[in-house]
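User: structure tokens for NADH-quinone oxidoreductase subunit F, please.
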Amino acid sequence: MSRIRIYVPGDAAALSVGAEATARAIAAEARQRGLGIELIRNGSRGLLWLEPLVEVQTPQGRIAYAPVQAEDVRALFDAGFVSGGAHALRLGDVEQHPYFKRQQRLTFARVGLIDPTDIEDYLAHGGYRGLANALIMQPAAIVMAVSESGLRGRGGAAFPAGIKWQTVLAQKAEQKYIVCNADEGDSGTFSDRMLMEGDPYTLIEGMTIAGIAVGATRGYIYLRCEYPHAKRALEAAIAQAHARGYLGENLLGSGLRFDLEVRLGAGAYICGEETSLLESLEGKRGQVRFKPPLPAIEGLFGKPTVINNVITLASVPHILAQGAQSYRDYGMGRSRGTLPLQLTGNIKHGGLFEIAFGMRLRELLYDVGGGSLSGRPIRAVQVGGPLGAYLPESQFDTPLDYEAFAAIGAMLGHGGIVVFDDRVDMAAQARYAMEFCAAESCGKCTPCRIGSTRGVEVIDRLRAGDNAPRQEALLRDLCETMTHGSLCALGGLTPYPVLSALNHFPEDFRSQPTARAAAQ
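Assistant: Done. Predicted tokens:
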């Protein structure tokens, strides 16, 4: 008799709301009833307000129940949930849920569907087809495919991946490296973590293809230390890939080699900047390097290095498996493919939502996200992490596109979207941006190190009404200096949230409480 397959997410999001207790309760209840089950700890499907989300494989397909706490398990078994029985928590097929159904999942196609550390499951769902194609292509053809796909870096700068790869390919060096920036430190972002915990082989395959494309034989995943579940998943997957010949010497009998390992960062935000990351990876203090030379020419240990973030590299297997045009068919303008958006903050339906570029922010907030969790009007949205601009309601019709956001003085960044209702104090948010920069600065350049500290002081004087016109002028001048004088994006982008708050919500910077604030 075949065993019943039950899926309970084992990633950090589900674990934080009781998934481990739910899994134990299911196993215990099945034993007590004499039922043979196979309990699979998959990744989250991304509907985070419904975690822990439990799925059961039935002849009619996978049936979901959510949110399932340990105390719900006995009643679920009584209702016959192992065969898809009716219950108040029954959702049906997750992929038919309105939140999931309207997505266009390319990078996250397998997340939640497979056992993350089972290479056979990965292969059964189309894994390593991209690598198989890459092994019969010339390196220049692989790079060309990535270029023609329109893939741009998903870490913030949106630099074309193919140009970076071509630069490394053109270098003559005995040793080259592939480095994955998995130091996901922006507020409201979790797509890297979800991918690594839910489908680590996609990242491993993408990095292996990158190595073949540019002639690199070694790769490093620079992972933030706050991601222990991702570390375990990655290391288990890497071990299996080595054992099966998908990593190491003589990749699948090709005569090529690529080795991969995980290195932990200590949690400094500045190490999300690629040159600071390289310094840390070399065992030094994480400080920004001067450019030139670019890392593609002199990167890790002075050797040519491809540095891309998790989602960029994890997008590569689809491109090589399905073709550059297949990926390019998604999106708009120069923003091609899909972007995993992360809805957080005061939002009813928070989670991960992968969609092609072009959806308008308003549609994402209300039609997908369901509006604010509090039920109050959404006043502001910060897109792109702690250094992203605050967008007012008047800009909610902006399409989610790199150039469209740049045109309004904002950035998509890593796709993190944090929602605030009408009770937010935007002056306090602007102050936080400056304070964050001061705390996280590596200290190498004056505009960032000193400017952010002075910025906090100026905002405090402005809010106190201490010669407000002069303080506002001083704050704007300081922001201009930081934008144009900082060595890296930490200081250079801090003015984005500060100026957007000042420009769109000037009433919050006045010393007298507004009617809105008084009503709170």
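User: Anything notable?

Assistant: The radius of gyration is 24 Å.
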